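Dear support,

Our group has been running a series of protein-ligand predictions, and this particular one with histidyl-adenosine monophosphate is the one our PI (initials K.S.) wants archived with full inputs and outputs. We had some confusion internally about which version of the output was final, so please treat the block below as the authoritative record. The input we submitted was:
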Amino acid sequence: MSEFQAPIGTHDVIGPESYEWEGLIGTFAEFAHRFGFSLVISPMFEDIGVFNRGIGENSDVAKKEMYVFTDRGDRTYALRPEGTASVVRAFVQHNPTTPWKAWYATPAFRYERPQAGRYRQHHQVGVEVLGSDDPAVDVEVISLAWRFYEAIGLKRIRLLINSMGHDECRGKYVELLKAHLKSNASSLCEEHQKVWEQNPLRVLDCKKAPCIEVTGKGPMLPDHVCADCSNHFEKVVAGLTSLGISPELNPRLVRGFDYYTRTTFEFVADSLDGAQNAIGGGGRYDKLAEELGGKPTSGIGFGSGIERLLLTRQAEGVSSALVDRSVDVFVIDTTDDDLATSLCDELRRHGLSVERAFDGRSMKSQMKLADKSGARFALLIGPQEQAAGQVTIRDLRSADHEQAQSQVSRDEVTAAIFNLITK
Ligand code: HAM
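Confirmed final output from the archive:
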């Protein structure tokens, strides 16, 4: 084992796995473009206040999972545990025209107990829209995610949805919930017996049987949101349904950050293990911009874990490649004049993917590399070809190499390769 390893809970992504990543992020970028979003890149770390105020000081992530550090100038920063708070901070700082539609692909850092599908550095693709509370925006954001999942071949995905109401109606609901939890506190799970009061909504999300039983008999959010919020929610559900996307109402879906208001949603993959089956989640956060010092501005977005999306593709047995990273041509040069350099340059300028060997390897060794590269064609230039001003083209996918071989003049090699590729 080498002396240094990637830190616990992190992983290196190297080829060929990284082709999947390229394909996935590329497909997301394409969908974001189709839906009118532009890329936002913001720092990987922020003043700790951005996250404490953004996701809520009492959230598990802020309390137990953030990577916090002090820099040499004595400023306290945190590595981004999620994408939304930084994007909203950037929105407040730059004040762009609204609706502002931004997408991102970013690492996120959380000090969690690592396991399959749960890491200390994970990666998300996501979008945020600021400046509109129109339910059609909720529908657009959720449908972007859904269409993207379809495009990467996922079939066994469910959309869970809920409304958290706005501050006022949720506040009234929380009082009702508190009263219910107070009179049943001793029946809650061990952890929540102690901490239910800090954040009663979190108890709704608890997966342990005692909490499920107690909350199941108590008041549920959707029955207590005001007429405006309820109306908004109905429009979101109707809009999704009209697109053939069927949301499942889940009154327990409160999610882990404090910024959510009104619509909240989660995408779960039935092919993944229950504890890590959320492949994406998001919702509205109509107070967040204000919380971070901006003008009151509605917002909504979602984030989706890249690792979990790739695990889901595996679990569902999706085999279609997300991007073509095959090699077109391998150039084998056994002359003393490095003719490969100019030949590779010419082919690459014409858009082909071209590989070659270095270090003056033997013909046999270069041929092995060509086979290993998976290239469709090998171009051979030896002293004979050099003298005749020619190149030998060999089709590496043909069983009979000698048969599948032809010679063309050096000037015509690019045209000849294109001819063969498009045949
Ligand atoms: P989140 O639900 O915490 O939401 O994370 C979004 C997605 O990131 C999850 O559904 C999951 O796929 C993935 N994920 C989260 N934590 C881990 C982890 N430790 N290891 C692997 N994958 C993970 C947010 O982060 C919000 N910012 C989403 C949002 C955007 N809400 C509004 N706009």
